[in-house]
Model the fold of this input.
Amino acid sequence: MIGEPETDGDWDTASGAEGAAEHLPREREPERGHGRGPRTPWLWALGGVVAASAVWAGTLAAQDRFADTPRIDYRHAENLCREVSLQVLGKTIDRTPKDADSSDASEGRSGAQDWAHCAVRLKNAQERLSYQAQVLVELHKKTDPGPEFGTGPLGITGLRIDPEQRREVPGLGDRAMLDRYYGSGGDRLTVLDGGAVFTLTVEWFATSAGEQESVDEDAIDGAMIEDVRALMAKLRR
Done:
């Protein structure tokens, strides 16, 4: 009678599948320290945020740069004497503006500012008072002239301005001011419009002894306003 086989030790209860699995080739685990594994998704997202922030910052910087640039609605005049007529002033004081001459005009251009100047003599054959007008147009391309408008003497003639006589002129540019000289002798009109500043100065002085003509400064002021308004319309682009 055949007996049951004898076994040394316990019976192996592992299934055949489990046992076979031990002999199957295993996947190699990636070696650490060699090469780069797949990038974590949050790193990609972070990179996108940084790039978008850089583009947005550049856009804001460009907008701020252009926002700080003064508005200029006027063209530069290479010969301002050819643009200035002073017709209203001439009629008011019964004088005829001298014909435009290139020697009476000057101008300059730069990256920060363009400017043009014209000196005009208003004459009359029988005059005892001599009138002279000066026109200056400044186009500020980099710095807004608004905060400093009307705060300084504005040239040598400005030293003769009487601050007690200053008047605001409504309806002309963004802001306009009329000034008078100490003890008469001259008026000055200054107009701010965006980055443009217009200045018209009219002076008068005796040319002979004896009785002098009377000067109606209110009428001269009104004529100056109209002539500057006409010049602004002519140079507007």
